[in-house]
Amino acid sequence: MRVRNVLLPLAVAATLATGATTAGAATAEDGHGPSEPNRSTSPISFVQITEWDHIPAGTRDAFIDAAQHDGYESLKNDPQVQDFRVVPDPDHPDRLTVAELFANQQAYQAHQQGRFQQDLLAAAKKDGVSGPTTLVANYNIPATKDGEHFSTSQGDNGKVFTVVATFTNVQPSCRDEFIKIAQADGVDSLAVEPGTLSFAATPDPADPTRFVFLETFTGLDAFVAHKNDYPAQRYLAVVAKCGIVGPDFGITNSQVGFDHPGGWSVPNAKH
Questions:
Q1: In which band, very low, low, confident or very high, does the pLDDT at 34 lie, cut at 50, 70 and 90?
Q2: CA pair distance 270, 30, nearest whole angstrom
Q3: Are the beta carbons of 127 and 61 closer than 8 angstroms?
Q4: Does residue 65 or residue 42 have the better pLDDT?
Q5: Domain limits at 77?
């Protein structure tokens, strides 16, 4: 997918951006070196979600290590990298999803050309991995109910239950309503659900009928609680009313409902 336009002008994103801070590095629990936590994010961030496929079994661990290292170095050395999560597909060992949030599009572009991303691309080439395939790259819509009060996502240690959900067939007659209810879903979910940690709804800049959601939770049980709570149910009622297709869950390639929504991300760790 080639990014053509962004949802909001950079000036708007800069106005809403907040100076996020992060805790110091901790020791990873899985035998790696120190880990770097994800930061709390701005109401509007630049979101990139990519997929890597055909990871050979013999190089899977090494490639996941390389992706974790990209996240660690990016967060440690660039304050405009807000969130970096590496999510192995629990159902398909040859697949991996990487979701990243940046302060703005310029930070995203700088990261793409930077040393840490180039190191990951080199590891993919060496290991025979296909990708990255871009699922979406754009500014997210802010979580707000009135355009004045915004909700932000909180930081975490990287090891959280992560969901990527795609909705398609958002027709022009329903687009404004869909965006409004998605924004309210984000606000209310972050406010009333202790297990919901982050929420980002991102329009496809090349297809106005398509949106990709990135959400994180303390665990699968928290996702189930979120799915059944009133913010999501109110949102899904609009999805059904408007004939919108989804959610299709990207991490597990699931299109069969809510049975396989996502997977656990791994810490951003030095190796």
A1: very high
A2: 11
A3: no
A4: 65
A5: 10-18+32-139
